Amino acid sequence: MSPQAPAEAAIVAVIGVGGTIAMVPTSDGGVSPQLTAADLVQAVPGLAEHGDRLRVVDFRRMPGAWLSFADLDDLRTAVDQAIAGGAAGVVVTTGTDSIEEMAYYLDLRHTRPEPLVVTGAMRNPATAGADGPANLLAAVATATDPAARDRGVLVVLNDEIHLAARVQKSHTTSPAAFTSPNAGPAGRLVEGTPRWLTGPVTRRSVPAAYPGATARAVRVMLHTVTLDDDPVFLADAESRMDGLVVAGMGVGHVPAVLVEPLTKAAAAIPVVLASRIGRGPVLTSSYGFPGSERDLLGRGLIPAGFLDPLKARVLLRTLLAAGATGEQIRQEFADDVS
Asked: Which CATH number fits domain 12-196: 3.40.50.1170, 1.10.10.10, 3.10.310.70, 3.40.50.720?
């Protein structure tokens, strides 16, 4: 019996968006994103040799802070085209400033089983100890792992694999900046191979438009509550915004002076209550004073569950843009228990 031929390596599409991983020094002494996706692949030892199984797409070259939802919709189209062209997985290289929001938005709209892995770098290629090449290699390894299928969008940096719905950037400069405080990493890269710490996940998706609804442009504001906050910032928010996320203190508390404008807003638009801490859930029934979580939810605010304020805004905006009803919005946030 002749030996069985080895399985052919999977095709991976690498889509370059920009960010620190693609930055080089400029004449003014700073750095800016100039490297293409092909440049990034060529710079990774052990990766360029597999060029016949890699497809590179030079999508954008911009800082992560510049990205818009319109850019992300175009990126979703590029991802779908790559998969339709035979890619078994897709890696997106981008800026870390907005990875936690970007990846979550893509996760809400990515319904295919093929892995979509987002990565970047904390140190640019011109610095000692640049982490981009290692992160890109780990991302490609994750995208080709059969166990990564049906897990939605994953974020891979520092040899850790995070779920898009849980990952947060928790340090401004450290290569270990990305964590998942409410869940821990879904896996780790060990000797270049993904090792999974969690089982299959329950995936959530939001359609481009709900049945009977039409997709539309919306404005959703995030207000972070502070000590002795001024209600003028929330005055008539319902006339200026389609939705509002309030990052409350602690388990979901606000100063008494904010109760009236929040009550007024919640009567007209969806108002989501999250915690500015970013770790742990918003409570629902523990405290009872005016401005407590129980009081605010009784006035019509919607609890964010374990979603941090940034992701709560992404989810609310995505739902509103798809024409979700108030009840559908409430149910989507109620389902966030993982």
From this structure: 3.40.50.1170
